[in-house]
Amino acid sequence: MAGASAPTPCVFCEIARNSTSTPLLHFDDKVVAFQDIRPSAFRHYLVIPVDHIPTVKDLQRREEDYSLVSHMLNVGQTLLRQDAPQSSQYRFGFHQPPLNSVDHLHLHCLVLPFIPRQRD
Ligand SMILES: [Zn+2]
Ligand SMILES: [Zn+2]
Question: Which InterPro entries match (predicted)?
Fold first, then answer.
């Protein structure tokens, strides 16, 4: 077996450090929020922890992790309510492994209607 490989840069960690051109809709010492680059609904934001947590399976049953997740939900709800106050069709969800798109925990926050995917 080869030795330690170079760590793969994590795009969400870079966004959380605000070292990309992605505009942050919200940031604090625990989480940041930004628009999904491929929105699948009328509004589609992602809320991620600043710390690199790969998946929901890496969360632990402890106060700190419960409060992180509830904070992520609060931030997502606040953003959607600000941006689409007339809508009540909000959806929130985490990926369940192995269906991760990016291996950095992120909460999808959507306002319906969904945008149909273009196929080519
Ligand atoms: Zn990361
Ligand atoms: Zn995702």
Answer: Histidine_triad_HIT (IPR001310), HIT-like (IPR011146), HIT-like_sf (IPR036265)
